[in-house]
Design brief:
229 residues; 9-stranded mixed β-sheet; 9 strands
Length: 229
Amino acid sequence: MQFGSLRTELIYDTIKSEILAINEGNVTKAFFPKSIELVKKEYPQLEEEQVLSIIELVGNALLEKREKISLVATVPLAFSLKTKRIQNVAEELIRNAKKSILLTGYSVSGFILKIIDLLIEKSQKGVLVKIFFNDLQSQSSVKKILEYRSKFLQVYDYTNREDKMAALHAKIIVVDKKETLISSANLSYHGMSGNIEIGTCISSEKIAMQIEELFKDLLFNKTFRAVRE
């Protein structure tokens, strides 16, 4: 974003970095120390309340620009659909990934071989791919993924020995820590083609980071085990 002033550009970038570091975006002195200091230095005539108002305006503009939510769905192929299909969105997100992919799989079938190949291809190009499976022993269609495991293709398994009915049931794809697909669709023929499934595609660094942090905590607490064999 260009403002024609290096100082104003610095203020904008500082507000952006500090607002990304908080969850709710509440504008208080505690959350924006560097931004407040820079604005006061650039505009010493402003009262503190006015300084906070400027930061709030910039913060709201950033959030509005950055966050976008759209509906996605799976319906039988014979039906026309005004929204994007979940399978197309999933493939597009993975294909466009530049740095990282986080994906969960509750039920996976050979129908999504194209997606599996995309994940392997991305990992071989240096994109960090982390896949979380539910009860890996029951997922016979993921053999190819296991064969290509590497430092860029990491596989994790969820097994709950205490409660056999508990499961990793989430269906999520997070790309580059900013684009997220959350839906009811499994990575299977019916999930991607035959069923009626609904989901959302969210463009939000905040939401993506919350999901990344959640799975980081689950790994730390050993809810998942890394597949190494």
